[in-house]
Amino acid sequence: MRDWIRKPLALGLGLGLWVGAATLPATAQEAKSVNWSMATYVGGHWLEFGMRNFVKLVGEMTEGRVTIKVTQPGTLGSALKVTDSVRTGVAEVGHNWPAYDWGADRAGVPFGGWAGGLTPEEYLIWLYNEGGAEMWREWRDEAFGVVSFPCALAETEIFLHSHKPVRTLEDFAGLRIRTSGAWAEIASELGATTTIMPGSEVFSALERRVVDAIEWAGPGSNLEAGFPSIAEYIITPGIHAPASGQECMFNKDAWAELSPHDQRMIELAAQLNTFLTFGQYGEADLAAWDKLKAGDNTFVELDQSFIDEARAASLAWAEKQAAENAWFKRAYDSQKALQEKLGTWGEFRLPIGAAANR
């Protein structure tokens, strides 16, 4: 190659490499490093795996620039008011269940999960194929002034750990139960006496028979919490909570300190963690269910008549909320449309576990 060509070419290539080095890596090199604390609403595997894995992913994907310390529930404000802790800056980050904010905005119910809501598989489709995650973020920004997106997907719950058997609506009438979110109102309409309390109080309330029964989570978390050891009856299916979407939220001022690149990495970490928790919590529930079935508890299945009554009451409750709350209606209508769309799913795809029953 002639020198008069080689030299400008070399100069151009060198300049291009220098420009690339000065722009792309500089984004990471100049991005601000932060050390934040996370307020949480719940412990157990949701915290130990779900959130610790999320903050690990965040650290890796931001190359160590974003460090988040996970605290125990109640450390940085009330476990039932994580949104307030984040919004006011008591914590830069929060792990929350949106339905805990239903006293301020009942739209948290369809986002967080409820009796007429989505299964875990339906949740994944709604969040990432039907615009649910974007809607969630928009709602939190407009209604609460925080940055939030789904970051974990909790399992279908056990209906009740109970000192009394429950099969029918008559059995449910007068039952004193610990619950939360929309089900507290719906269960009351079905005749139960409901009490809302944070997770730290649930075990003692059931043990001391302050309540007759509690709903909390799926087999994995409930076995770990010890509920089967203090209440004889395990009642299924978990019609009150087919699944629960959990969120990671950020104080807006803190979020604004991050580079766009690191913000995007955190969003991707949240999405990845949502898929990972779907599988991990499912594995934990399968293992725990085998242990429970081998134990001394009495298992009770709800009568179909009760399930039908509960669903009808849940949908009637939701229609009322949708008529009064625009955000509730938007999320609720979107989820209903997906459920209708998935009505033909079983015509061409096998349900989970179908192969074992062939």
Short description:
The protein has 358 residues and is of the alpha/beta class. It is built from 15 helices and 11 strands.
Distance between the termini: 71 Å
Order of helices and strands: HEHEHEHHHEEHEHEHEHEEHHEHHH
Structural class: alpha/beta
What's the helical proportion of residues?
40-55%
| Rg, Cα atoms, Å | 24 Å
Give the percentage of residues in beta strands: 15-25%
The largest beta-sheet arranges its strands as 7-6-8-5-9-11
Tertiary shape: globular
> Biggest sheet: strands, sense, closure?
6 strands, mixed
Low-confidence stretches: 1-26
Mean pLDDT: 91
Q: Count of DSSP E strands?
A: 11
Count up the helices: 15
Describe the structure.
This protein has 358 residues and is an alpha/beta fold. It is built from 15 helices and 11 strands. Helix 2 (44-61) links the parallel strand 1 and strand 2 (66-70). The radius of gyration is 24 Å and the shape is globular. Mean pLDDT is 91; it is low at 1-26.
Key structural traits:
single chain, 358 residues, alpha/beta, six-stranded mixed beta sheet, 15 helices
Write the layout of secondary structure elements.
Blueprint: H1 3-30, E1 34-40, H2 44-61, E2 66-70, H3 82-87, E3 93-96, H4 108-112, H5 120-129, H6 132-144, E4 146-154, E5 160-162, H7 169-172, E6 176-179, H8 182-189, E7 193-196, H9 199-207, E8 213-214, H10 219-225, E9 233-236, E10 244-251, H11 252-256, H12 260-293, E11 298-301, H13 304-324, H14 326-341, H15 345-348
Parallel strand pairs: 1-2, 1-3, 6-7, 6-8, 9-11
Antiparallel strand pairs: 3-10, 4-10, 5-8, 5-9
Helix pairs in contact: 2-12, 6-14, 8-13, 10-12, 13-14
